[in-house]
Amino acid sequence: MGFFFYFADLNYKIIYPVLLGLTSACIYVVKKYFSNYSKTTKDEFGEHYFFFYWLMFLAESSAGFCFLIKQSIFPVKINNNYQPKLKFFGIHIIFYLFLAILDLSSEIINQMTYDFFSNTEENCFNAFQVIVLIFLCKIILHYKYYTHHGVGLGLELLGFVVLSLSDLSKSSKELTYNCYLFITLSLIVQIIFSIQECIEKYVMDTLFFDPFMLLSGEGICGLIIVSILFFFLNDITCIDNSYNICIGKGKKVEDFIWVIKYLINNPAYFIYYFLLFVLLLAFNCLKMVTTQHFTPLHRYIGKDLRYLLILILSLVFPSLLDNNKPNILLSGIGYILQFIGDLIFLEIIILNFCGLKNNRKPEVI
Taking the model in full, what pTM does it have? Predict the structure, then answer.
């Protein structure tokens, strides 16, 4: 097989995007299981999206402890060449606020469309994000692309077509105003994610900035923003609960104190959110470390691996998939094509025919 392709000489760090995919799959399984549990018990807790955002930023800010642990084991000199007037962990606080706002806005939109699209449809939006990210990496990070990159991208898009076919026959969505709105919002989310990932990579490369410090600063600023939102939302009562955002009609949009008391009195919810906190911390740390050691595009190894793992697990636990279940065989072929396309595009699989090997960039990952 070496005549046609071979695997690049990669070091142990390639395990980061693999662990990223495993962690992402665990987050999906935990959220799906508890969503089904909440529907079964029919309690009054509701979704509490803003509490989830608060927990997400709390997990990100906790990355600072990971940095302290890493510094105690492998001490590295912190870069002090960049000294803005209003700095926080060595970077201007406006920059952290900007990243936190990007993160929060994308998560809000993502949560709005979470129950509307299936896994297969969500993966199709990721194909759009890959194209946007490739373009932004070219503009912002000055990446160069060669023929084998086109082959890898072609396989990813072919996988996208196969995935679309696997879900097409079972899709029952009507093209209503909400459908067009959610599609537009989902495309906007992919653009926001791409911008954020390129900016994070640029900062880590140009300022030699530690990924855990960057993540922690973003998380702390996000906590401040969400806490301010909590303050105002606590005084707003629910009028319409169509999207299950509120606790219930006639109640407040959010009540942080009520949520904390409810978690204390209901151990199942407390364990769920604690487990989610640990998984979010691990996921965000792995995401940043993957970007630091490789490129933002390497995150897609984790994303495609996540969908492939969920599909495999759904064979044993059918409830993991949405009610609109895709064709398992076509979905599997589509995810595998996308995964192989990732490996070729990111030069983990080196094509060795038709002169493609000579098109590799000089540096080896």
Answer: 0.82
